[in-house]
Each structure stands twice: as structure tokens, then as C-alpha cells.
Design a protein that fits this description.
With about 325 residues, the chain is α+β, with helices and mostly antiparallel strands. It contains 6 helices and 15 strands. The chain has an 8-stranded antiparallel beta sheet with strand order 1-4-13-6-7-8-9-15. A hairpin with a 2-residue loop joins strand 11 and strand 12. It is globular and about 50 Å long. The protein binds 2-acetamido-2-deoxy-beta-D-glucopyranose (2 copies). The site of one 2-acetamido-2-deoxy-beta-D-glucopyranose (NAG) has 5 residues, from strand 10. GO terms for molecular function: hydrolase activity, hydrolyzing O-glycosyl compounds; xyloglucan:xyloglucosyl transferase activity. Catalyzes xyloglucan endohydrolysis (XEH) and/or endotransglycosylation (XET). Cleaves and religates xyloglucan polymers, an essential constituent of the primary cell wall, and thereby participates in cell wall construction of growing tissues. Keywords: Apoplast, Cell wall, Cell wall biogenesis/degradation, Disulfide bond, Glycosidase, Hydrolase, Secreted, Signal, Transferase. Its main location: secreted.
Length: about 325
């Protein structure tokens, strides 16, 4: 036991030295790695998943018969998940495309979840982006945030990424952080802390997705197809989920050590956003955030959640178009 501990301490110190000597402009570069092949990484859950070997594109299909979805073969305890996604265009009202991590198959009563949800729209109106976070079954405390896009997500591939380690959860769009939730003692079990798998699903959300259900899916425009490529999962696979991993570590004992040494998401650079990333986050939230649970006074629990107390009130945008508020070059994209 002592030897193991000693080895680990040594490994940790070496890593610390390495990290301090390599000054990286972008924290994300640490987590970025080669793309993983679809067939080695995922399995189809249901419906039609179409493959185009030629350009490595995978498509989810929704038609009158069925939606579709796939899931990663492994569960991960802290990871960086990413994919390039191109959404269907034209009439897409009622459609939900979800790109998310979850462990609801293993923990039906106290699951964790991190969501990108893309909500379709009527012809000529833009898609909207929703994110959500659940920890240890906190389904009675939704933490939704909704954003307008600053580009048309149907004309090209864009990168959607989730970074999850013991310090924070960060949602990125094209390497620009749009949302961050920091781990804290007050959050307790609401911070996702059990292994999760990565999912992508497309389904009929007629009842709520567009204007509260006013515009259902119109199958006259089917089949609807969403394209994916460039999958990245860089983390610590923990299959099978065994008893000692189910135990949620207390806040004090949660650490980079959890479940695997050298988890690529547990490096100093990935424990905090760079100053450029913080500015980008601010830019997105100032111009594109149009709903946040922290400012939803209709939900009486929301404003009293621990992470909300520390946040300044933001002047929210209106749900709307793809207008770019500033030339993108001036954003200081973290990866360039
Ligand atoms: C998405 O990421 C890839 C690298 O994985 C990069 O080549 C591409 O430019 C990115 N796309 C956008 C729109 O940022
Ligand atoms: C997680 O949920 C379980 C079951 O509801 C509960 O017993 C446990 O105390 C929770 N853990 C934390 C850290 O909140």
C-alpha cells in the first residue's frame, strides 16, 4: 500500500513539473487527441444509424417509424467527449437531437447526466441549443440553460465538446466555452461523480421541443438526418462498473486519483479555464444565453441553488437568429 502511494506521489510530482514547464495557451489542447473510430467505440441502441465509410460520417435518422441512437461501449470516470455535428436543415420543428453523457442504465434512481440538446424549429427559424446537468438523481432540480447559435449549425460541421473532471464541467462549441459548473462542497451529490457513457440520440419531441409543443414534427419532411464525425473520447474507461466505483467519494476525498492514474482530463491545465477562455465564455453568455435556471423566478428552487448565489445577474438575449455580434477572429479562439 505504502509503495503504491509512494509511486503515485512520485508520478504526480513528475507530472507537476512537466505541466509547469509547458505553458499552454489552451487548456483544451491537453484533452484533444486523435479521433476514435465509430465501430470500435460505439454500438447502435435503436433505429437506423447510417454509415458512409468514404468520409467517416455517421448519421442518425428520424422518420415516422423510428428515431435512432448510439452509445459508447465503455463508461468513463471523468473524460473529454467531443464530436463534429451537422444538423438537418429546412423544417425541423419538434425534433430533439441529444448528445450527452449519462449512467441512467446503471443508476436508475440516482443517475448523473450532462446534456447538449439541439431543438429543431419551423422553416426559416433557427435551431436552439440547450444544456443541462444532473447529479445523483437531481431530476427535481433542472439546471437548463439555452443559447442561440452564432452560426447556422445546418450548413457545416461544428464541434460540440464536454469536459468533465473533478474540478469542473465545461460545455464547448467550436472550442469556445459556453457554460461552466465548478465542483463545490455545497453542490454535494448534484455534481456528476459516477462513471458515464456517451450517447447520441435523435427523437420526436413534438410535445415540447418547439414553442412548448405548438409545432410538432412534420413527417412530410422526413427522413431527418444528423451527421457526425470526428468522435473524441479522452478519459478513463471504467468497465465494468464495480462496487467500489459506485461509492461516491466525499468532496474532501474526491481527487484526480479517482479510479485511474493519469486520467488525461485531470491535468492542471484542465482544472481551470485560461483567461482567454474566460473572456470567450463571457462573450457567449452576454450575447447568446437566453435562458438560465439561475434567473428563473418561476422556479422557486432555482435562485437558491449554491452555484447561482455566486453569479452576477446577466441581461439575457432574446431567442432568435444566427447573427454574429463580433467578428469571430477577435474572439481569441482558445485553440488558435
Ligand atoms: C473541429 O475540430 C477539428 C479538429 O478536431 C478542427 O480541424 C476543425 O477546424 C474544428 N471545426 C470548427 C468549426 O471549429
Ligand atoms: C446520492 O443518492 C443516494 C440515493 O438517493 C443517497 O443515498 C446519497 O446520499 C447521495 N449521495 C450524495 C453525495 O449526495
Amino acid at each position: 500500500m505504502l509503495l503504491v502511494l509512494q509511486l503515485w506521489v512520485t508520478a504526480f510530482s513528475i507530472q507537476l513539473i512537466n505541466q509547469q514547464s509547458s505553458v499552454s495557451a489552451s487548456s483544451l489542447q491537453e484533452a484533444e487527441d486523435g479521433a476514435v473510430p465509430f465501430h470500435d467505440t460505439f454500438s447502435v441502441i435503436w433505429g437506423d444509424v447510417l454509415f458512409d465509410q468514404h468520409d467517416d460520417v455517421v448519421q442518425l435518422k428520424l422518420d415516422q417509424q423510428s428515431g435512432s441512437g448510439f452509445v459508447s461501449l465503455e463508461n468513463y470516470m471523468y473524460a473529454y467527449f467531443s464530436a463534429s455535428i451537422k444538423l438537418p436543415h429546412d423544417y425541423t420543428a419538434g425534433i430533439v437531437l441529444a448528445f450527452y453523457t449519462s449512467n441512467s442504465d446503471d443508476f436508475s434512481k440516482n443517475h448523473d447526466e450532462l446534456d447538449f440538446e439541439f431543438l429543431g424549429n419551423v422553416k426559416g427559424k433557427p435551431w436552439r441549443l440547450q444544456t443541462n446537468i444532473y447529479g445523483n438523481g437531481s431530476v427535481s432540480r433542472g439546471r437548463e440553460e439555452r443559447f442561440n447559435f452564432w452560426f447556422d449549425p445546418t450548413t457545416d460541421f461544428h464541434n460540440y465538446s464536454i469536459l468533465w473532471n473533478h474540478k469542473h464541467v465545461v460545455f464547448f462549441v467550436d472550442e469556445i466555452p459556453i457554460r461552466e459548473l465548478k465542483q463545490s462542497e455545497e453542490l454535494g451529490g448534484d455534481y456528476p461523480s459516477k462513471p458515464m457513457a456517451l450517447y447520441a440520440t435523435m427523437w420526436d419531441g413534438s410535445g415540447w421541443a418547439t414553442n412548448g409543443g405548438k409545432y410538432p414534427v412534420n413527417y412530410k419532411y422526413a427522413p431527418f438526418k444528423t451527421s457526425f464525425k470526428n468522435f473524441k473520447i479522452n478519459g478513463c474507461a471504467t468497465n465494468p462498473i464495480v462496487e467500489d466505483q459506485i461509492e461516491i467519494p466525499s468532496y474532501q476525498t474526491r481527487s484526480r486519483m479517482t479510479h485511474c492514474i493519469n486520467n488525461p482530463t485531470e491535468t492542471l491545465q484542465l482544472w481551470d479555464l485560461t483567461s482567454i477562455e474566460k473572456q470567450s465564455l463571457q462573450w457567449v453568455r452576454t450575447h447568446y444565453l437566453y435562458y438560465t435556471y439561475c434567473q428563473d423566478t418561476n422556479r422557486h428552487y432555482s435562485t437558491s441553488l449554491p452555484e447561482c448565489a455566486a453569479q452576477d445577474t446577466i441581461k439575457l438575449a432574446k431567442p432568435g437568429g444566427y447573427r454574429s455580434h463580433r467578428p469571430k477572429q477577435r474572439l481569441g479562439k482558445p485553440n488558435s
